[in-house]
């Protein structure tokens, strides 16, 4: 192929390998007797890293939230704890289904069936890949940008404030123990943040690629037309059958992507409305002039959590939208100039294309823009309920 069709995923795969969330090549492709042992060793390494960094950190935050007797203190701990809990679900989902994502990326990169042609297709592809890269940078900046604000504020208030409130079985206000716990969080928080945002962006990229394949398919269907050539009818039939085969393969891949994103997206949806509600409540309690760094961190965090729901919603919506446009694209071709058997074949394919292509989260929610609206609305309702309960005159 002339260019890299999946260049938008290269950085994501490198980050996932660093976070031990991507299968080792030998664990996927090896068929020798040492393959099970290699997979077991890789799994032990990944589990050990996340046990001491992600799982232990999440457990300490849950203990702190459950043992807290003050509502505001519990709120400060809980909205980060829920975010970490959703990350734990994503980690196990990646370990279980990462092979699906790897096989899809390899097929998109190597299969001639998904080769992007020059001209409008290539321009469209490059434009959408560039747009995704910019969105990924914005999301990464907002997510990782929270970390310096929180850690600088905690270092300034030493030894009375930790970056993140967690339960520990010792007095962390002693200087040596404070800086040990501070160093642990200084490594754990950026690491878990990187794992979280990279997992989210991988889900979005898979949906983006499927939507681009559907858009590319629509562009090819719209330009189908007979020519003056003697074998025009046979060539046109071959082209249409190739496009039908491409559509069937894209639908099969969409089903695999749904398996990959279904559980993690469902858990993210269920927790995000609560997280957003608690974040709004916490920002209302802050004074921007007394704690500007904390207020800025909360604003960035709130924006990042909104993006965490908006991105899969918009890319999932693009999959459905581009699939719904395929019948119109096929109708736009020069079918009146074709023979009767070709028109009959086009009619049958058009009827088949009317079946909607929708990605679902856990089999319950359709991943699209209506889902984003529902999550935001439920967050506002929960926030209003908390405000009425705790601030009733």
TrEMBL record:
Matching InterPro entries: 7tm6_olfct_rcpt (IPR004117)
Spans through the membrane: 47-65, 77-95, 136-156, 206-225, 257-281, 293-311
Main location: membrane
UniProt keyword annotation of Hydrolase present: no
Membrane-topology annotation of the record: Multi-pass membrane protein
Cross-referenced Pfam families: 7tm_6 (PF02949)
Localisation: Cell membrane
Domain of life: Eukaryota
Keywords for this protein: Cell membrane, Membrane, Olfaction, Receptor, Sensory transduction, Transducer, Transmembrane, Transmembrane helix
Subunit structure: Interacts with Orco. Complexes exist early in the endomembrane system in olfactory sensory neurons (OSNs), coupling these complexes to the conserved ciliary trafficking pathway.
Cited function: Odorant receptor which mediates acceptance or avoidance behavior, depending on its substrates. The odorant receptor repertoire encodes a large collection of odor stimuli that vary widely in identity, intensity, and duration. May form a complex with Orco to form odorant-sensing units, providing sensitive and prolonged odorant signaling and calcium permeability.
Family: Belongs to the insect chemoreceptor superfamily. Heteromeric odorant receptor channel (TC 1.A.69) family. Or2a subfamily.
Protein name: Odorant receptor
Native species: Drosophila arizonae (Fruit fly)
């Amino acid at each position: 192929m002339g260019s890299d069709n999946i260049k938008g995923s290269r950085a994501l795969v490198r980050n996932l390998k660093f976070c031990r969330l991507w299968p080792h090549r030998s664990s996927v492709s090896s068929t020798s007797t040492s393959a099970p042992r290699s997979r077991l060793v890789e799994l032990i390494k990944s589990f050990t890293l996340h046990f001491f960094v992600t799982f232990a950190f999440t457990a300490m935050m849950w203990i702190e939230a459950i043992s807290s007797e003050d509502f505001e203190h519990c709120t400060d701990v809980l909205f980060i704890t829920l975010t970490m809990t959703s990350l734990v679900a994503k980690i196990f989902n990646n370990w279980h289904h990462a092979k699906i994502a790897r096989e899809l990326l390899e097929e998109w990169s190597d299969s001639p069936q998904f080769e992007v042609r020059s001209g409008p297709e290539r321009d469209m592809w490059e434009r959408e890949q560039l747009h995704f890269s910019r969105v990924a940078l914005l999301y990464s900046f907002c997510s990782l940008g929270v970390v310096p604000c929180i850690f600088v504020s905690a270092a300034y208030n030493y030894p009375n404030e930790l970056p993140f409130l967690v339960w520990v079985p010792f007095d962390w206000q002693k200087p040596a123990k404070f800086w040990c716990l501070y160093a642990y969080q200084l490594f754990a928080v950026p690491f878990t943040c990187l794992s979280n945002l990279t997992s989210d962006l991988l889900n979005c990229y898979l949906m983006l690629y499927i939507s681009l394949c559907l858009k590319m398919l629509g562009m090819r269907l719209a330009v189908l037309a007979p020519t003056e050539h003697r074998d025009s009818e046979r060539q046109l039939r071959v082209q249409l059958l190739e496009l039908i085969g491409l559509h069937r393969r894209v639908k099969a891949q969409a089903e695999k992507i749904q398996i990959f994103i279904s559980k993690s997206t469902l858990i993210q949806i269920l927790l995000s409305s609560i997280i957003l509600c608690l974040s709004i409540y916490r920002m209302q309690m802050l004074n921007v002039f007394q704690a500007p760094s904390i207020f800025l961190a909360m604003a960035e965090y709130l924006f990042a959590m909104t993006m965490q729901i908006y991105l899969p919603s918009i890319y999932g919506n693009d999959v459905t939208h581009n699939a719904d446009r395929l019948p119109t694209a096929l109708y736009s071709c020069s079918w009146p100039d074709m023979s009767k058997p070709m028109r009959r074949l086009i009619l049958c394919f058009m009827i088949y294309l009317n079946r909607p292509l929708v990605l679902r989260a856990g089999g319950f929610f359709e991943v699209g823009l209506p889902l984003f609206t529902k999550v935001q609305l439920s967050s506002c309702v929960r926030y209003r309920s908390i405000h009425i309960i705790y601030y009733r005159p």
